[in-house]
Each structure stands twice: as structure tokens, then as C-alpha cells.
Design brief:
The protein is α+β, with helices and mostly antiparallel strands. The chain has 32 helices and 39 strands. The chain has an 8-stranded mixed barrel with strand order 23-24-26-27-28-29-30-31, surrounded by 5 helices. The protein has a 6-stranded antiparallel barrel with strand order 32-34-35-38-37-36. A 5-stranded antiparallel sheet has the order 2-1-5-4-3, sandwiched between helices. The longest helix is centred in the first third of the chain and has 24 residues.
Length: 1000
């Protein structure tokens, strides 16, 4: 054997080779070590195991041979036994850098790197990795120590400190302050960045206290330097201000400084302080003092009382000289007596003023008016504005006030208030006062009842026109005096317009008392008046409503009374009417239509029907008139004659009219798209629509939107309205004619048109009202001469003529002979739906019916014998149920044509729906036998003169049927014997005139 040492394998692998008996790293190869190596190994193991950082022993191949107390897995949040793939845990560039560093360590170089690596839970770790080569006796490198230090918390602390330092720096800049420390023994100032900026000096490594003092103003130098010396000598704190010249701008500025002393070894060691540039505050203070001086000058020369008062002590710090003029007291007395203001307030206003003063403690600004007693004995009104001044804890410190003498303004206000709330002619409360009164009475917090009487003087405008407005005014004054003399307790009388008055009566005993009062008013007003030598007889109509019975707000109760007034006017004037939508069937229907109309417009529950206009000679359809219909849930198809007046009264006619214009234009567009030959469509325009601006613009908008030429639109307006508002209408119609829209005068002959007016107006079409057409087929009737003259006149004026309401063939023959251009009426077609009119348009022509359009007899629908009366039988009808809800309505007059055990045929002017959801009650008397039975409408046919025939199915018990059967047998026998049927209320006059004169 030789003494040479045999070549060994890698020492680290041998050292950390695991055996079956020892799973812990680091001890298994120890028996192969020399004694000195074993001791050294124990030292190194002790150092590694107790080191606070993670230490890994890596083989030259990068394999982890050993770790100390923790593991890389635990550091990164992974299970201990999970094998980590490090190139997936860090970015590629970092991994490559670490790999390079590892190989450099194998080459004998020690290196350190900071890296970021993501923890398993998602947050980032900041680590310091130190690679140290492991060599044995300066031979080849056996491996690498990798020391991993977690510096995440340290980095976070460092970042927090940097942020705090930045915040402090920014805060000093914002607050315009700087911080400093002065080490006394070293005579060294340590200052913040803002300290240097405020003084305007450059930062130096060692700055003595004398450096900033070089900039202090000479007049402030000694005092300030003494304070610093005193603090350094005996350790006092100080705060002072001084002036200095800015080191860069040389501008004279003001500085505030405050410093405290810290001690060490029982003597002052350091001064710690802050500085703040006080220049702006000093300048503002000077400006404020100057401003205060100027304000004092201004306040003392104002005709107003301006004052400032400190709450504690209770004393005025400033009172302007104008206060003397208002209060008539010497200024010094006002200063000496802080209670003078409270004592001067008028007794009636004092409590309210003191109550408002309490709001000052809550920081509220006061604006109020009150009266004061002055030193000269006078009483004045002042306007007082008081402003509280609160401290930082919201305590009232001072009060600032301004008072102005408004005595003259208050007198003027009283006069204006009187004229604003009272009628200048009669001195009665006006409409504004009335609404204010109604607002109080209708307040739900104070429920009560009252009656409202709406009074209108009948035909009063005729007095103004005939005798002059002075006579009319005197008559109004005398009527007012009569009304005032009649007013009971708890009443309110107001004049709301020219000849309209409203009376409110509270706490009335009964409705009968109100009725008696209304009758008394009518009697007193109708007594003759002697006015300027004229004996005048004035009558009044009154509408009455009750709160809350007829409305629970002021507008509704007013409208209810006005609706009753309208009914009184309709019934001939000089009477009164109570508002009641349940009065009769007509009122009930009107009430429902009025209630539902606004919603119907919103939901467009309307439909346009089209009535053809036919060329008299050729039968060619030259156009049509668009007629609006309303599909009501309870009343079926409602005609415009019923709901148009309601729309006008409720200011809805504009929306309704615009809907018709839009719908017609849309329909024309649809026909155009379907290649129909377009014909002009006429639209009735309500007169009220002309009172609203923008009619021409609205029509132009829809024509352009639907791309319809204006020549296919014709507007029909009533002649009477044209005369009343001639200039406004003519201006609007001129704009429409310029657009190309045709104009027709509707209902010609029913108004008051003059020939001169027709000449100036130059309308395109003249429509002759049906009233004159009805009798043109009768020989020698005067209407035929009138129509012939109108046709001749229109032809001379170059106007097209249209005859409305042509129903008889004889009428058609007359109009053809007189060369009327166009006919419109049932003889050719009634108004039809759009689908039926489209069929007519495709046909192109219509032929007249060579028969009278008289009422056809209805198809026999009864299983019982029907008895036809020799005359119409007078009877009454009312509605008792609608949609299974009971209603209590008054009766309407009807006429019965025939009767059976199962039903009756009636004639009525009411437009009723054939609707099984409505139950009617009928009262009739036959040979002194009274029948009170219910029934439902089965069918409906049109009669003459706006009347309708209805077939009624009656609901009768067996007892009533037996009674009726016996009476029918007796009447049948009497009729066959040509004997009069006794004790039965027959009508032997014109039935149509009777129904229109006796609606109830």
C-alpha cells in the first residue's frame, strides 16, 4: 500500500447520503470523517440549524441536499413534501439570473440578489438570496450554500416610512409650514425641505443658527435672537413673530415661529420647532382693518340701522348712526342700554319676534318684519335681517343685524294687497281671495262642509252693449248691494268675473235651506233696478254644489257648481240647479264620459270613421270626411256630438284635434304605400283649437312627417266662430292656404255670415247644413229657395258646394238639378270604418238608393203576442245597475210603441249602448194598472230628429205577466171595436217634439 490518500467521491453527497436507519440529513456520513473534520462539521451544523434565515445546501446539480429548521415549501405556502418546479414560480428572467448566479457560486464566487416571488395565497414575498460556494481545503467546489432571507415586512415598513415622509413633506407645503431642530452644542440646524423654501436659502450640510437670522429684519432681530438665546440657556419655550427678507426674492415677509426645548444631562440639549409664513394672514388682517374702517364709514352713512352685538357680555360693539334716525334715540343711549331693542318692539309683535330669536342659537339667519315704538312716539315698520356668528363648537358668539324702515312700503303693500284680493268695482273679494278661502275650507286637517253657489247674471252683456259700461257697472254695484244685504252668517261673497259671483255658506242647516236661499236670491235680483234713469230687469241663474259631496278639492267643487249653472242656463235661465251626476241618465252618461275622457285620450281609445263625398253628377267618390268615434267600455260607440263639448269644456280638445290630424295623415300615408288613389280627407277643427298657437305648425309637421301633399287635407270650420274671431282665424287660415291646405265653411246658414264676409274670406268649399236640405224635396218649401240661392251664390264666388245630410232621393234630384257639386249623406253612405271605405275607394263610385231611408221595421224577436198602441204611450226609464254595481239615477221620459209579455219597443232621444251589463227600470201605467219592471236592451235603430228605437227584453214575475196579459186582452178587444182605451197616458202630439221638450 502507498501512503497517498485515495480519491474521494463528492464530499457533500457522501455527507448527506441517507441510510435506512437515519432519515435526517447531515449525520449519516460522519463515521468516514477525520476527527478534526467531525468537530468542524458539528460547528457548521450548529450555525446552520440556529440561523434565523432559511439555509439550503445545494449539490452541484442544484439538488437540495439539506435545509435548516424551515423549508422552502413552507416559506412559499406549499405542503412540505410537494416537489416544487422553481422555473414556474418566478419570472423567466429572474430564474435565468438565479441559475447564472448558482453557476458562478460553483465557480467560487459569492453573490446576493433581491427577488420577488408569489406566495401560494397570492401575495408577493420579497426575498434576499445569498449564494455561497462550499469548498474543502480550497479544492474544488463541493456545492453551494443558499441563504434565503424574507425581507417582506422590512420592505413594507420602509415603504410606509417613505410614504409618511412624503405625506409630511406635502402637508408642510400645503400648510405653508416648516419643521426644524437645533442641536445646541453643535450649533447645527436640521431642517425640513419646506424650511429652506420658506426662508429662500440653499440647503447646506452644516447650517448654524446664525444663517437664517441673516435674513431677519433689523427691527425684529434683537428681540427674536434674545428669545432663542434664552431658550438655549435656561430651556424655555417660546412663540413669536418677526419679519424677514426672503433669501431669493428679497421680498419682506412675516414669519411665525414656535419652539420647545428638550433636555439631556440636566441641561438644554436641543430646540425643536416649526415655522409658518404668516405674510398672507398679516396682509389680510391689514386689509380687514381697512375694510372694517370703510364699512364703518359706509354703515354710518346708510339710512339703515346696522349693529353688531356680542352675546357674552351682552353688549353692542357697533351701532351705526342711521339707528338714531330710525329709533329716534341718541346713539350713546343705545350703547348704554343693551335692552332698548327688545323694549321697543310693538306689543302685538313681541312674542313672534322673540320666538324667532331663538333660532339664532341654532345658526339660522332671520328675515322678518315687525313694528317698533320710536322715541318720538311714532310707530314704524322695520325689516330686520339678523345673522348669527357661531364659534367652532357651534355656540352663538355674536349677532350682526340690519334694519330698514319699511313703513311706507308696508302702507303701499296694504293697498296692493287689497287691490290684489278685492274687486275694484264692487270691493268684494275677487277670485284670488275665493281660491284662498276654498283652500282653507278644503284643508283635510280641518274637515267641514259648505255649499257653493255659482251665480251668473243672465244676458248682462246686452246691458253693456246697449247702454254702455258705466250703466253696466252701476247695475253691478246695485246687484252687489242686494246680495250683501242677504248674506247669512258664515257666508262669503266674491265676484269672480264680469257678471259672475260665487257665494260660500258654511255650516248650513240643510240642503233645503240652501235651496230656499237660492230662490230668495233669484227673486231679489229680478226686482227692477233704477240705473241712470233706466228701469232694468236682471235675472240670475245659479248652480249649486256641496263640499265634500260634489268634490273634495276647490277646483272640483267649483266645476261642479259651474256644471250645475250650465244646466240652469240650458233650462231657460232665471233658475237654479243642484249638481248631481245621478240626476238622470243623460247627466250620468255625461259624468262617466267626462271622468273617462282624459284616460281615453291617453290610451287612444278612438277610431276614425269616413263618410264619402260623392260627385252629384257622376257618383264618383271625391273624398271623405273623417269623423271621430269613441269606443267606451260601458256606453259603446260614443258620437262626437256627446264628447266633443266635454273635451272643449275640460281643455282637452287640442289633444283630441291633433290626434285626428295625425291619424288622418298616417292613414293617407298607408293608402299611398298601398298604391291607393288618394282623395282629400276633411277634418272638423274645433273653434277652440284656433285659440291655441301652433295649429298651422302642427299640420305642417304631420304632413312633412308622413310625406303627404297638403292638397289631400281639408279643414272644416264653423261659420259662426269665424265671425267672432275673424282676424285671428283669418291669419291662421292664410298660413294654411299658403301651405296648400283646403278650407271649408261648415254648417253654412246656421250662423250670422254676411255677404261681405264671404267675399273677404275666399274659402274653397261651402257646406250647406242639413237643416236646409231636409225639406228641399217638398214642393214650394222655402228651404228649397234658400238652398238654390246659396248654390248660386257659391258658384259666383268660385266655391265648391257640398250638401250635408242628404237622405232622400228627392233631395238628391233637387240638388242635381241645381248643380250642387258634391253630396254627403246616408243616401249614398253613412260614416263607415276604414276597411269598408277602402272597398268603396277601390270601386270608385257610389249609387244613390231610389227609396226613402225611413226606419225599417225591426225583425220580430218576441215569442209573445205584441200589442201596438194606437198612440205612443208615455213612460219613464232609469238605469239601476251598471257592471253589477247599483246606481240610483233619476228617470228619463220615453215613449212606448208596442208591448208584449216579453218586452217593449221604445222611442228615446238618448244614445244608449246595446250592452247587457246595463240594467234599466221602466215605469208605465195601463188602464190604471202600474207596472214597475226591469229590462235590458236587445237592439237599436235610428229614428227621426236624433231619436232612437230600442227593443227591450223585460224581466217580469208570473204575477205581473198575468196582470199584463189580462190588460192586453182588454186593450185588444177595445182596439178591434175602435173604442178608446181608457185610463192610459197616451201622447197625441208630435212624439219628437215631446221628447226634446221633456227630456226628464
Amino acid at each position: 500500500m502507498t501512503n497517498s490518500t485515495p480519491k474521494r467521491t463528492n464530499f457533500l453527497r457522501q455527507l448527506f447520503q441517507k441510510t435506512k436507519d437515519d432519515s435526517h440529513t447531515g449525520r449519516c456520513g460522519e463515521q468516514n470523517l477525520l476527527p478534526n473534520e467531525s468537530v468542524l462539521l458539528n460547528y457548521y451544523q450548529s450555525l446552520a440549524m440556529n440561523h434565523p434565515d432559511l439555509i439550503l445546501v445545494l449539490s452541484p446539480e442544484g439538488e437540495i441536499l439539506s435545509q435548516n429548521r424551515s423549508s422552502i415549501n413552507e416559506l412559499l405556502g406549499f405542503p412540505v413534501h410537494k416537489k416544487l418546479i422553481f422555473n414556474k414560480l418566478v419570472a423567466t428572467d429572474i430564474y435565468n439570473k438565479l441559475a447564472t448566479t448558482f453557476y458562478q457560486a460553483l465557480a467560487g464566487n459569492t453573490e446576493r440578489h433581491d427577488i420577488k416571488i408569489k406566495h401560494r395565497q397570492g401575495h408577493m414575498l420579497q426575498l434576499v438570496l445569498t449564494f455561497i460556494p462550499i469548498t474543502v481545503a480550497k479544492q474544488t467546489t463541493e456545492g453551494v450554500y443558499l441563504i434565503i432571507k424574507n425581507i417582506t415586512e422590512y420592505k413594507q415598513v420602509v415603504q410606509a416610512l417613505e410614504v409618511s415622509e412624503q405625506h409630511l413633506c406635502h402637508a408642510q407645503q400645503i400648510a405653508n409650514i416648516g419643521s426644524w431642530e437645533y442641536v445646541i452644542d453643535d450649533n447645527q440646524l436640521i431642517c425640513s425641505d419646506n424650511f429652506y423654501r420658506l426662508f429662500g436659502i440653499q440647503r447646506t450640510e452644516h447650517m448654524p443658527m446664525e444663517k437664517p437670522f441673516e435674513l431677519v429684519h433689523p427691527d425684529d432681530y434683537e428681540q427674536t435672537w434674545n428669545l432663542v438665546n434664552q431658550a438655549t440657556d435656561i430651556g424655555t419655550s417660546y412663540a413669536t413673530s418677526f419679519r424677514f427678507y426672503h433669501g431669493q426674492t428679497k421680498e419682506l415677509r412675516h414669519m411665525k415661529v414656535q419652539a420647545d426645548t428638550t433636555w439631556k444631562d440636566n441641561k438644554p440639549f436641543k430646540l425643536v420647532g416649526v415655522i409658518r409664513d404668516d405674510t398672507n394672514e398679516r396682509q389680510n388682517e391689514n386689509k380687514l382693518n381697512d375694510t372694517i374702517h370703510r364699512f364703518r364709514y359706509i354703515f354710518d352713512h346708510l339710512e339703515a340701522a346696522v349693529w353688531l352685538k356680542d352675546v357674552v357680555p351682552d353688549a353692542h360693539t357697533f351701532i351705526s348712526k342711521g339707528t338714531e334716525q330710525i329709533y329716534q334715540y341718541p346713539l350713546q343711549r343705545l350703547y348704554d342700554d343693551p335692552t332698548f331693542w327688545e323694549a321697543s318692539i310693538h306689543e302685538e309683535d313681541r312674542a313672534e319676534v322673540q320666538r324667532k330669536q331663538q333660532l339664532l342659537a341654532r345658526g339660522k339667519v332671520l328675515n322678518h318684519e315687525y313694528r317698533i315704538h320710536c322715541g318720538d312716539g311714532s310707530i314704524k315698520w322695520v325689516y330686520d335681517q339678523t345673522v348669527p356668528w357661531m364659534n367652532q363648537v357651534d355656540e352663538l358668539v355674536s349677532i350682526f343685524g340690519v334694519q330698514i324702515d319699511i313703513t311706507d312700503q308696508m302702507k303701499l303693500r296694504e293697498q296692493l294687497d287689497y287691490h290684489a284680493t278685492n274687486d275694484p268695482l264692487t270691493s268684494l273679494p275677487n277670485q284670488r281671495s275665493l281660491y284662498h278661502k276654498l283652500d282653507k275650507l278644503c284643508d283635510q286637517q280641518r274637515p267641514g262642509t259648505f255649499a257653493l253657489l255659482y251665480l251668473d247674471l243672465d244676458n248682462f252683456t246686452q246691458i253693456n252693449h246697449a247702454l254702455g259700461y258705466q250703466t253696466g257697472d252701476e247695475a253691478l254695484i246695485q246687484v252687489t248691494n242686494r246680495l250683501q244685504a242677504m248674506m247669512p252668517n258664515n257666508s262669503f261673497l266674491s265676484r269672480v268675473s264680469g257678471n259672475d259671483f260665487v257665494i260660500i255658506i258654511q255650516n248650513y242647516p240643510s240642503e233645503k235651506d240652501i235651496i230656499d236661499f237660492a230662490e230668495s236670491i233669484i227673486n231679489h235680483v229680478s226686482a227692477s233696478l233704477d240705473v241712470k234713469g233706466y228701469e232694468l230687469h236682471i235675472t240670475a241663474s245659479i248652480g249649486i254644489s256641496f263640499f265634500p259631496k260634489n268634490g273634495d278639492d276647490k277646483l272640483t267643487v267649483m266645476e261642479s257648481a259651474y256644471s250645475a249653472l250650465y244646466q240652469a242656463k240650458q233650462l231657460g235661465k232665471n233658475n237654479f240647479q243642484l249638481y248631481s251626476f245621478t240626476k238622470d241618465i243623460s247627466s250620468y252618461k255625461r259624468y262617466l264620459l267626462e271622468k273617462d275622457l282624459r284616460q281615453a285620450i291617453k290610451l287612444e281609445e278612438f277610431e276614425l270613421y269616413y263618410q264619402p263625398k260623392v260627385n252629384t253628377k257622376t257618383g264618383f267618390i271625391e273624398g271623405a270626411e273623417a269623423l271621430i268615434r269613441w269606443h267606451h267600455d260601458e256606453w259603446g260607440l260614443v258620437s262626437p256630438g256627446e264628447f266633443i263639448p266635454i273635451a272643449e269644456e275640460n281643455h282637452l280638445i287640442q289633444e283630441l284635434g291633433d290626434w285626428v290630424i295625425k291619424t288622418v295623415c298616417r292613414q293617407l300615408r298607408e293608402w299611398k304605400d298601398r298604391d291607393y288613389t288618394l282623395r282629400p280627407i276633411s277634418i272638423n277643427i274645433s273653434p277652440i283649437r284656433f285659440l291655441k298657437k301652433g295649429l298651422a305648425e302642427t299640420i305642417q309637421h304631420y304632413l312633412e312627417h308622413f310625406q303627404i301633399p297638403a292638397k289631400y287635407l281639408e279643414l272644416e270650420i264653423t261659420e259662426g266662430f269665424l265671425l267672432k274671431t275673424e282676424q285671428r282665424v283669418l291669419t291662421t287660415l292664410a298660413e294654411l292656404r299658403e301651405m296648400g291646405v283646403s278650407i271649408a265653411i261648415d254648417d253654412f246658414g246656421t250662423g250670422f255670415a254676411s255677404l261681405e264676409y264671404l267675399h273677404e274670406f275666399q274659402a274653397d268649399t261651402l257646406k250647406i247644413d242639413r237643416l236646409f236640405i231636409n225639406h228641399t224635396h217638398e214642393a214650394n218649401h222655402k228651404d228649397a229657395a234658400i238652398v238654390a240661392a246659396v248654390l248660386h251664390l257659391a258658384k259666383g264666388l268660385g266655391m265648391k258646394t257640398v250638401a250635408e245630410g242628404v237622405e232622400e232621393y228627392g233631395q238628391y234630384e233637387f240638388l242635381l238639378q241645381k248643380e250642387c257639386d258634391v253630396i254627403q249623406g246616408f243616401l249614398f253612405s253613412k260614416p263607415v270604418r276604414v276597411t269598408e271605405f277602402e272597398q268603396m275607394m277601390q270601386a270608385g263610385t257610389l249609387k244613390p238608393l231610389k227609396r226613402k231611408l225611413s226606419q225599417q221595421s225591426e225583425v220580430e224577436r218576441r215569442e209573445y203576442f205584441r200589442f201596438t198602441f194606437p198612440y205612443y204611450l208615455k213612460a219613464k226609464m232609469r238605469i239601476t245597475e251598471v257592471n253589477h254595481k247599483k246606481v240610483n239615477l233619476g228617470y228619463a221620459a220615453i215613449l212606448i210603441e208596442n208591448i208584449s209579455l216579453g218586452g217593449i219597443k221604445i222611442l228615446s232621444p238618448l244614445r244608449l249602448p246595446v250592452n247587457t251589463a246595463i240594467t234599466f227600470n221602466f215605469q208605465l201605467s195601463l188602464m190604471n194598472a202600474l207596472f214597475d219592471v226591469d229590462g235590458k236592451l236587445l237592439w237599436k235603430n235610428e229614428g227621426k230628429a236624433d231619436t232612437f228605437f230600442y227593443g227591450i227584453a223585460l224581466t217580469m214575475g208570473e204575477k205581473d205577466k198575468n196582470r199584463l196579459a189580462g190588460i192586453l186582452n182588454k186593450m185588444t178587444v177595445l182596439k178591434k171595436l175602435n173604442q178608446e182605451i181608457p185610463d192610459t197616458n197616451f201622447l197625441k202630439e208630435n212624439p219628437y217634439a215631446y221628447l226634446h221638450n221633456h227630456p226628464l
